[in-house]
Amino acid sequence: MTATKGIEAVTERIRERSRALREAYLERVDEAASKGPHRSVLSCGNLAHGFAACAPGDKAALAGDEVPNLGIITSYNDMLSAHQPFEDYPKLIKQAAHEAGGVAQVAGGVPAMCDGVTQGQPGMELSLFSRDVIAMATAVGLSHNMFDAAVYLGICDKIVPGLTIAAFTFGHIPAIFIPAGPMTTGLPNDEKARVRQLYAEGKVGREELLEAESKSYHGPGTCTFYGTANSNQMLMEIMGLHIPGASFVNPNTPLRDALTREAVKRALSITGLGNEFTPVGRMIDEKSIVNAVVGLNATGGSTNHTMHLVAMARAAGIHITWEDISDISDQVPLLARVYPNGLADVNHFHAAGGLGFLIRELLDAGLLHEDVRTVWGDGLRSYAIEPKLGEDGSVIREPAPAKSGNEKVLARYPKAFQPTGGLRVLRGNMGKAIIKTSAVKPEKRVVEAPAIVFHAQEELQAAFKAGELDRDFVAIIRFQGPKANGMPELHKLTPVLGLLQDRGYHVALVTDGRMSGASGKVPAAIHVTPEALDGGPIGRVQTGDMVRLDAEKGTLEILVDQAEFETRPLAQADLSGNSFGMGRELFEGFRKLASRADEGAAVF
């Protein structure tokens, strides 16, 4: 089925806007690909350095140009649950490569930090910029020019976008992303949130809070709520960068290992040495990017991807905007309810039919482009499946179930949870912002109340503890953008604002910072751009000004005399404390170079 006229119109708009950028990109991809297997251009000294540590058999294989060499880029570390399973992947990948007649080498490692560890801490100010560091670190690993294809081991928040930017930059070689999967279900996410709120009220202590958090985040794999990490996996699959069915299989299971082995063999089969050469820069196009935006909206995915997708697409010569994301949201219904958009976690989503079911529903409704290239070699319909383990240990793919296993978690298209997607762009005299509507009840989506202005999240928390926030208000937290302090997530404010909302107050958040994929039940206008430090109107708001946030109409307005508002001086803030500690000294250049949030918040 072809895409609807509305989806096709947005796609064509992106195609026209991107034409010059995309043509220049594809010329570079084709020129690099035309040089053939890249070890052939290395001198003997270069090549000897490249395989010096290999086993004799691999040395002999790499000495010629007829055996494909697979580069592994890994984000392994054993502190973070999502990345710990990658410890044994290189051994498994090398074994699978040998079985397929190829060789695999670890080309490089990239950093992987966890926003869950750094929430509310100085290290969070490195988080967003770590995406670009990861892209650059990947480039260093692949710059040795030894590889016919690459596999990327990454899963969490900034890691996958950074790896994707690098993969598209090296668009002349095939790329497959290999995930590790989500941890098994622990303490329900709503119970975890309840304990957090009780802690904010002072009704339970740190011991009870830590016990709840430890029961929720309890083993290897990604966190089970639908934040940026699991949105990443959805995007990789719906863009055709995973093999079908790979996203949400738990770590350390036979099926997980079978999917990994299969991904390796597939990567080796799509190099320039065979008949199915699939350079990722040619494979991914405007339709693939639109499919990613459709999936993000249909699942109520992470707000972070309103920046990441812009930066990822740009690396492939494709220029998308927040308006594209918003226009697609108007056409795409919400088909999944996974926490914080509902009570279920990603394991429940997978059990109900998962991505295969969702992709099938969206394809049948004409909301996805079916005629795209994927690493699997055919269109997107081949991803409308359910993966299972065969008796011989191989992967079996069956058609996605006709019915949802749980209609409260995963809906058929005719029974969508809401008619529009989970993300929306707000516009008004305060600039542009993003809001995640899928977790906010309809009756809470419009807030008109006086502003209370803060320059740090700690100021709001202090005001709450002092009893100053028991009223209707819109919290304005500014000087939190990329140029100011690296745009940290402000997710630690969620329990406080949620508690005030539960007490019956009309509350909302407006910030040039981030709230992440875990944005919850309180309406939050985030990524406000231009940011305060960049001269944005948010810098003119004063405590007491009436602010109206209307997520239904898509507006964000300060209700004061416009002429008077525009002549107000911009607020100033002492940001010297952001320039040192926990490595922030090393990122001063990034803060100066960072683009606006709606341009991807990138430094290159």
Automatic annotation (TrEMBL):
Binds 1 [4Fe-4S] cluster. InterPro entries: 6-phosphgluc_deHydtase, Dihydro-acid_dehy_C, DiOHA_6PGluconate_deHydtase_CS, ILV_EDD_C, ILV_EDD_N, IlvD/EDD_N. Keywords: 4Fe-4S, Carbohydrate metabolism, Gluconate utilization, Iron, Iron-sulfur, Lyase, Metal-binding. Residues 409-601 form the Dihydroxy-acid/6-phosphogluconate dehydratase C-terminal domain. Pathway: Carbohydrate metabolism; Entner-Doudoroff pathway. PROSITE patterns: ILVD_EDD_1 (PS00886), ILVD_EDD_2 (PS00887). GO terms for cellular component: cytosol. Its cofactor is [4Fe-4S] cluster. Residues 68-381 form the Dihydroxy-acid/6-phosphogluconate dehydratase N-terminal domain. One of its GO terms (biological process) is Entner-Doudoroff pathway through 6-phosphogluconate. One of its GO terms (molecular function) is phosphogluconate dehydratase activity. It catalyses: 6-phospho-D-gluconate = 2-dehydro-3-deoxy-6-phospho-D-gluconate + H2O. NCBIfam families: edd. Catalyzes the dehydration of 6-phospho-D-gluconate to 2-dehydro-3-deoxy-6-phospho-D-gluconate. Belongs to the IlvD/Edd family. PANTHER family: D-XYLONATE DEHYDRATASE (PTHR43661), PHOSPHOGLUCONATE DEHYDRATASE (PTHR43661:SF1). This is Phosphogluconate dehydratase. It comes from Nitratireductor basaltis. The gene is edd.
